[in-house]
Design a protein that fits this description.
By secondary structure, the protein is α/β, with parallel strands linked by helices. It contains 17 helices and 13 strands. Homodimer.
């Protein structure tokens, strides 16, 4: 078998066998296939795509390139969730205690953020003492005892994907749905979950900018799950503006606490309850979606959800007092306001620009080596559909920096304000099973 013959075959848009895909993936990971041949191979996939069987085989090859997490000692159906990424996305912090309350084990592995703000791991580390490095024994014991635990991803999970992703980044092959789907699903499958709920975000702050692309990605990932014996559901959600009102790390933890106390913004509450309900369905806790949704709302309104979040923080070494007193979380030294220059209704908020602004304030990383300012971020005072008068505050910027000129300009560019009220869009577009 030769790499050039496989490249030629895919160039002619012929489907590849499992053995041919494995030959390319493992050969490249082990240094036997050079960058230029793998780059050519990726470009044939970019232009010609892959069928569902090929994508499942690519995913499985990524999984087999490194370690897989063995969660067999955890009782019950282990359910994981994954978001394709957005701005102000603190959903994992909300759903972990909610789903665990229903008796479904959540053995969560999350990464750190690179870009707008920190990932779920970074956000939780803004809580004093919170540990994301647990031994395998402690991780499994916590899930069996409390039905929940969250840790950072292991170093040798899907090394093929890491190496190929780095090459995609410099060969303009990032935005290929077969490659995106196999990258995402390989990490979830290697993490040991029995069932997976995918939050596929679409809009200005998401990787997928339109609903057709988001739907194709969602269907592709669900097909991978089916092919590899993982019960998988994808939920397409709105990311045309930041989720909720807070963007950053500690301020997103504060907002997650609000949602679990029943005082959260409508958009993030609905998205979180929808995702948690489907996680509970896959975990066997309920028979239908409406029953799950109502029960989870009850757990929020009763205060049980908030107590479960305290328990998660406590068992991972953090200070649970932050739940009752969020002021204990890190704060930035300075707060600056961005004011509206006109009267009118907020018609559009470019979520990506808001995210970039948050990074400029210190809430995210430009490179893996950068440190995060946990207190930095943005509080949105006006969202789509709100009426704003000239001179009213659009956003508050939280930072340790003294100069916020660039971030302020991006905030102003992000907001589109017009005389007419915009048509409302749903928070959850569709569910693909």
């Amino acid at each position: 078998m030769r790499a050039v013959d496989i490249i030629e075959k895919k160039k002619k848009n012929n489907p590849l066998t499992k053995e041919e895909i494995d030959f390319m993936v493992q050969g490249y990971t082990q240094g036997q296939i050079p960058d230029y041949q793998m780059a050519a191979f990726l470009m044939t996939i970019y232009f010609n795509g892959m069928n569902y069987d090929e994508i499942a085989n690519m995913t499985e090859s990524f999984v087999n390139s490194g370690d897989s997490v063995d969660l067999s000692r955890i009782h019950g159906v282990k359910v994981d969730k994954h978001s394709t990424g957005g701005v102000g996305d603190k959903i994992s912090i909300i759903v972990i205690p909610l789903v665990a309350l229903c008796g479904v084990p959540v053995a969560k592995m999350s990464g750190r953020g690179l870009g707008h703000t920190g990932g779920t791991i970074d956000k939780l580390e803004s809580i004093e003492g919170f540990r994301v490095e647990l031994s395998p024994e402690e991780f499994i014991e916590n899930v069996n005892t409390y039905k929940m635990a969250i840790v950072g991803q292991t170093a040798n999970l899907t090394p093929a994907d890491k190496k190929i992703y780095a090459l995609r980044d410099v060969t303009a092959t990032i935005d290929s749905i077969p490659l995106i789907a196999s990258s995402i699903m390989s990490k979830k499958i290697a993490s040991g979950a029995d069932a997976i709920v995918l939050d596929v975000k679409v809009g200005s702050g998401a990787f997928m900018k339109n609903i057709d692309e988001a739907r194709e990605l969602a269907k592709t990932m669900v097909s991978i799950g089916k092919n590899l014996n993982r019960n998988t559901i994808a939920i397409i959600t709105n990311m045309d503006q930041p989720l909720g009102h807070e963007v950053g790390n500690s301020n997103e933890v504060k907002e997650a606490i609000k949602v679990l106390s029943g005082k959260g913004a409508k958009d993030e509450t609905e998205v979180a309850l929808t995702i948690a309900s489907y996680m509970c369905l896959l975990g066997g806790a309920f028979d239908d979606f409406e029953q799950a949704y109502k029960e989870l709302e009850t757990k929020i309104n009763s205060g049980l959800a908030l107590e479960k979040l305290k328990e998660l923080i406590l068992i991972q070494g953090g200070n649970p007092e932050v739940v009752d007193n969020p002021d204990l979380l890190p704060k930035a030294k300075n707060t600056f306001c961005v004011y509206s220059e006109v009267d009118g209704y907020v018609n559009k908020i470019d979520a990506e620009l808001i995210g970039i602004s948050a990074m400029l304030l210190g809430a995210g990383r430009k490179t893996k080596e950068d440190s995060i300012n946990y207190g930095a971020g943005i509080s949105l005072k006006k969202k789509i559909g709100d009426y704003v008068r000239k001179g009213e505050v659009l956003c508050e910027l939280h930072t340790d920096f003294d100069n916020v000129e660039e971030a302020t300009k991006k905030i102003n560019d992000a907001y589109t304000i017009k005389d007419e009220l915009p048509e409302p869009k749903p928070y959850v577009y569709e569910v693909i099973q």
